[in-house]
Structure prediction request, 316 residues.
Amino acid sequence: MKNTNFDVLKKRLEQRYGLDLIHDLILSPDDLIILFADLSLDADMTLELISGNLGTIGLDNTATLPLKNLLNAFDFDNAYAVVAGEAEHYNAVRDEILDFKRKPMVTFPIKGVSGKKHWIRLQVVPVEKQPTIVTFFITNLSNYMMEEESIYHKTHHDSLTGLFNKYTLDFHYGQRYRFKDFHVMFLDLDNFKDLNDDKGHNVGNAFLKGFADILKEHQYLYNRFYRIGGDEFVGLCFKKSKQIQEDAAAIIAKTAVLAQQYGTTYCSVSIGIVKAEQREDVIRKADMLLYKAKQLGKNRYVFDKESTITIEDTKS
Prediction:
């Protein structure tokens, strides 16, 4: 319904201030772009520019913008996609945009023609009088979202090693525990307290960073490692069991080399690996296998299938 005060204000602004209500107030913000699309005319949905400048968000300043071009500009290099997964984050943004009935409003980054990242907020509003017409409002939120993205990164990563933290482990576990070839790797540095006592916390921190770098060499796709405590780490891995065990052996060997570099031959890593089957409390079961590796003399891994492990086992 039209605001009954609209015409009165429009006339007053013109007479008293020489302002046009539409062009000088509603359409004037530099960071606001307004477009519309007629869904009945174009299956690919081409947006037509009403006001604003597409150049302010890094795109070519044209009179039309195919929606697919906007989605193709999606910048996967962002903290949210790193945590959620690139495909998952993109699909969530795309699906929300296309759900017109819910009048979506979604914020995401695009890569401009120059390669620069621009954060935009896209709000989609169907026109009630003509259901085939949809209005798109794009706001440039780059300055605000750069800081928000930095905060988001910090809340999901360990500040010392740069690995994901326990908060992100819990999120990824709930999201991915049903994936094919799911394994959990539980890692603990042997005699790390002695290293800290002998050489100091600065050396201990440097060793942790070096160990994290070793783990990062084995990260790809959904295979990720997380620091969950002082010298405790967990890996969520999605490969064949043989490959997982090869990774564990490589991590053990590389850690031995790292220890030699710091003159700490007594510092090594023990690993417990579970191949998930029932997918029930798999991290705890991997921790139980880690304890077995410690009992067997440390500096080794123990692998087993989940079906052979009973949660009643204890470390006592």
In short: DSSP finds eleven helices and eleven strands in the chain. The longest strand covers residues 117-126. The CA atoms of residues 34 and 137 lie 5 Å apart.
